[in-house]
Structure formats: structure tokens, C-alpha cells
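Model it.
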Amino acid sequence: MRELAEELVGLEVDILVAPTSIYTEAAKRATSTIPIIFMSHADPIGTGHVASLARPGGNITGLSVMQTETAAKGVELLKDAIIELTRIAVVLDPATPSHGPGRQAVEVAAAALGLELQAVPVATAAEFDSAFAAISREHAGAVLVLTTPLYTSGARRLAELAIAHRLPSMFGARQFIEAGGLLSFGPDRPDMFRRGAVYVDKILKGASPADLPVEQPTKFELIVNLNTANALGLTIPSTLLLRADEVIE
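Modeled.
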């Protein structure tokens, strides 16, 4: 990714568009002058990519999906779905800059709920199977998967493994639920990319990224897959179903 970013900088492009934190990091290392617009950054402050949301202060700005906050909320939602839950696993990618702050937020949320936490680093798709085997060996009662491009591309396999190991799963984007995950909580990501086009337009018209505030989502979606719940023999409490924005049956 670093080499690709440097190649684009060498072509003297006007703007670099980066989908997530891992792409933003590669672009940041390649240039401190060309504007970089991120479309769905998990935690731009926690990763040090911007100085503040109101005034980013450098050549980087865009839209945040607030994964650090939504991941912590995901722990709460898993506990609401499984009252007897005592131990949770979190799958994270060490190469994704935002997963450090995300892990810390999950640790705090788990401790507040009296849950034991098992952190499971997964850096390649080849590690998916062994990761879930390790989660089962440690007797976690559910799994929360932080979002990163590697995991998004492997959404179906991750959902399949969660079901195969009888693990209720929490994700941060709806495509994981469409692939067979149990729960997801997060913003409408396609809408954020549409909103990101406004940033590109403003910069092409002369605006500075340092002066364009980072936007945050205003609406979050809780999606429940009842087909997966049935496959796991899990009854989702009606109180949680009533809070859901969408229930897949």
C-alpha cells in the first residue's frame, strides 16, 4: 500500500482518497502536502491522523465511522443479547492503525460489564480458521470483530466460522450480517462515501483540508440476523429486537 501511495504521489495527483485508516496511514507516510480525504475512518484522532475533528490542522480530513465508540457499544449489545455472557473474544488486525484504540475501548467496556476479554490478533485471511479455533479453546461465549478491509473481504468466511464454532458474533457493518453474522452496529457506510464526494469537490475548488472539519455519522444502525440466531439456538430478547433498525428473517 505504501508503494502504491508513493506511486500516486509521484504522478502528482490533486487528491488522494483513502477508504479507511489503514489506507490513510499509507497515504500519510507518502505525502504531507497533497490533500488526503478518508471516507470511513475508524478513529482519526486516536490514530493521530488529525489534530482535532473541528480543525484537522494538516493535509488530511474526511469522515469518521467512530469505530472506537461503536465497538464499545457492540460489547454492550452482545451482553444484552446473551444475558449469561461472561467471556468475549475480540478479533483485531495489528496492521490496522485504528484497532489499537478500538481494542482499548472494548477492554474498558468489557471490564465495566464484568466480562473477561480475549484479544485475538489476525493479520491474514489464512489465520481465520486458527483464530476461531483458539477462541473456542478459551471458551469465549461470543466474538466481536473490528472492521478492516481484510475482514470485510473475508466477511462470509468469518460469519461461517462463527456459526461453525457456535459463537454469537458482533460486527461493525451490515455486509457482515448479510454474509451470516448475528449482529452489527454502525453507520451507513455507502452514504459516507457519497458525503465524501463533497470534500473532494470543495478541495478541487480551493478549500484546505486543514480547515474542513471531520464529519461524524448522525445515525447508527443495529441489524439482527434471526436466521443466524436460530442456527445457533439463540433466542434474542424482544427488548433488543425492538431496538433493532432491521431484522433479517
